[in-house]
Amino acid sequence: MLGEKYFKLDMSYWGRSQRLVIQILCIWALAAYGLPALVLETNKMHYLGFPLGYYNCAQVIPMFFGFLLLVFNGVQEGIEADQTDGKPAPEAASSSALNAMLAKVYVAYTGGFVFFVLFLGFLEAVGVPDQAIGILFVIFTLGMYAAIGIASRTSKSDDFYVAGRNVPPIFNGMATAADWMSGASFVGMAGTLYALGYDGLAYIIGWTGGYVLVSTVIAPYLRRFGSFTVPEFIASRYQGTVQLPGGKVVELSGVSRFLATIVLLSCSFTYLTAQVYSTGVIVSRFIGIQFEVAVFSGLIGVLFCSLLGGMRAVTYTQVAQYVILIIAYTVPAICMSTTQDDGFNKNNPVEFLAYGGTLQAITLREKEMVLLGLASKVTPYLEPKWRRVDFFALTFCLMVGTASLPHVLMRYFTTPSVRSARRSVTWSLGFILVLYMTAPAYAAFAKLEVYTNVIGTPLSVLPKWIFTYGKIGLTTVCGKAVTSVNEAIEACAQASSGDYLLKLKDLKISKDAMVIATPEIAGLPYTIAGLVSAGGLAASLSTADGLLLAISNALSHDIYFRLIDNKASIQKRLMISRVLLVVIALISAGTAASRPADILSMVAWAFSLAASGNFPALCLGIWWRRANAQGAIAGQICGWGLTLAYLLGTRYGGWALWGGISNVAAAVFGLPVGFAANIIVSLLTPPPPDEVLAMVDSLRDFKVTGEDLTAEELEDIKEKEEALARTQVPQVSNTAEATPVATAEASI
Questions:
Q1: Region (Disordered): which ranges (predicted)?
Q2: How far apart are CA 429 and CA 414, in angstroms?
C-alpha cells in the first residue's frame, strides 16, 4: 500500500510532461557542465587533429543540444497524441499553403542574391573600385529590407504585434535565428574566440543551451496563453490586490506589468545599443563615412520594416536576412577551409571538421614566437585561463538569459499552435548552429594567419588591412591607430621600417573587427569582404528590428493601453507604437555613437538583466501554482535590482568584483535572490485568486487548450479580449473593492 501510494507514477498529461522536462533538463545540465569540467583531461586526447576537450565544447555540446530538442519534441508529441486517441493535432490548411508559398519566394530570393554576389565578383574582376562594391552591397541589402517592409505593411493589431499568429515553424525558426544572431554573434563571436581561445566557448555553450530551456520550460506555455507581450503574461498571471494604509486598494497586476516592462526596457535597450554599434562599425568601414554618421545611417533599414509592418514585416525581413547572413558567414570560412593542408585535412570544405590541424599549428607557432623573441609569453589558445567557476557562471547566465529575453520569446507568439512553437524552437537552434559551429573555425583560421603572416614581419611590409581598420580605430600598432607605414614607424619609435619586426604585443585587433577583417587578412577577393559586410548588416539590423518592436510594443500596449488609456483605439495604439519606434531608435543611436563597450559585453549585460528580472517570474508562474503577485513583485525588485547594482557598481562605480565574478555574469547573484524572494514572499502572503489558479491549470491542460486555432479564430478572440479590457477599473481605487484586471486574459 505504501509503495503504491508513494511510487505510482502520475500518468496524466501534465504528470508525464513534467517528468519528461525533468529528464531532459538533467541530461542537458550533465552535457553543459560535465564535459567542460573535464576539458584539461580530455584535451590530452585528439580527434582529427582536435584536442577532444576543445572540440567537445566547440562542436559536440551544441550539436547535442539540438539532438536533445528533437528527442523532446518527439516524446512530447507522443504524449499529446495519447490525449487524442493517437491522432496528431490538425494543422490548418492555410498554414500548409503559406509554407509552400514562402518556400518558393525565398528559394527565388536566395538564387537572386547569389547571382548578385557573382555579378559583383565580375565587377571586381573588370576593375570596379573596392569601395563601389562595398557601397553596392550595403545599398542592395538595405533596399531589399525596406522593400519587404513596404510589401508587408499592415494596420491590423494581430499582424503588427504577432504577425497574425500564422508563421510556419521553419520560417519562424529562420526569423528567430536572424533575430538571435545579432552583431554579437556575427561580428563579435569569432572575435571573442580569437581573443580568448577556449574560454570564449562559454558563449557558444550558453547561447545554444539556452534554447533547451526555451523549448521545455517557457515558450510552449506562453504560446498557449496567447498574449501579445511578455509583460502581458506576467500581469495576467500575477493578479491580486493590496490595501494601502490610506484605504486605497492597488491592483497588483498593474505593478507586476510595470516592473516587467522596466526589465524589458533595461535588457532590450542595452542589447539594441550593441546592434546599432555593430551597424556603425560595418557601414563606416565599407562606405567610408565617419562612425558616428554611420550609426544613424544604419537605422534607415530598421525603421522601414518596423514602422510599416510591425512583427509581420520584421518576420519576413528576418527570414531574408538569415539567408544573407549565413551565406556571408560560411562562404569565407569554406574558402579558408579549402586551402588547408595540415596533415589531417586537405581541401576539406566542411569547415567545422577542417581546423584541427590549424589548432595544432597555432600551438606550435605560440612556442616559436617565444623562441624567436617575438613574444615574451603567449597564453595558450586551447587551454582554459578562467577559473571554472567563471566559465560556468557565464554559461549559466547566458542560458537562463536566453530563456528570458522578451524579443526572443515574443517570436513564439507568432506560430499557429503550441506544437508549432516547440518545433519552431528546434528549427531556431538548428539554424543558429550553422553559424555557431563555424565561428571556432573562423577564429582559428584568422589566428593562424595573423600569427604566421603578420607577427614577425617588418613594418615596411605590414598588410594594408591594418591601416584600413586603423582609420576607424579597430586596429592599433604599438598603441596607436596607424594609417600608414610612416605612422607605424613613429608609433613604434623606430628610425626605419626595415629593421624592426612586429611583435605580438605591438598589434591589437578589436574583437569587433575580426569577422569583417578576416577576408582581407586571408587575402580573399574584396567581393567576399563586401559579402561579409552585408551579412553583418543583416545580423545587426534583424536583431535591432526585433528589439525595437519589443520595446515599442511594451510601451504602447503594456504601459499606454493597459495602464493609461484602456479605451484607446487600435489605430491610436499603432500610431503611438510607431512614434516610440523612432524615438527609441534615435536614443539608441546616440548611445552607440559614444562607444560604451565592446559588443559582446553589452549583450552579456542584457542577458543578465533579463535572467534576473524575468526568469523567476516566468518559470514559477508556469511551474508553481502557489506563486503570487506579491512574490513576483518582490522577486523582480530584488533580483533585477541586485544585478543592475552589481553591473553598474563594478563597471562605473569602482566596486571590487564579488568573488572575482565578472559583471557579464552579474545574474549569478541576482537570479537566486529573485527566486528566493519570490518563493518566500509568496509563502508568507495569501495564495493567488481562484481565476489565476484556473488559468495556470489551463496552461497545463492539453484537453482545454491543445487544439490548433486558425488565424481568424485567434483574431476573433483577441477582439473580444480588447472589448472586455475597456471595461476594466483603474489600477488604483479609493474603494475597498477592486475588480481583477485582465479576466479575459486569465481565461485563455
A1: 725-748
A2: 17
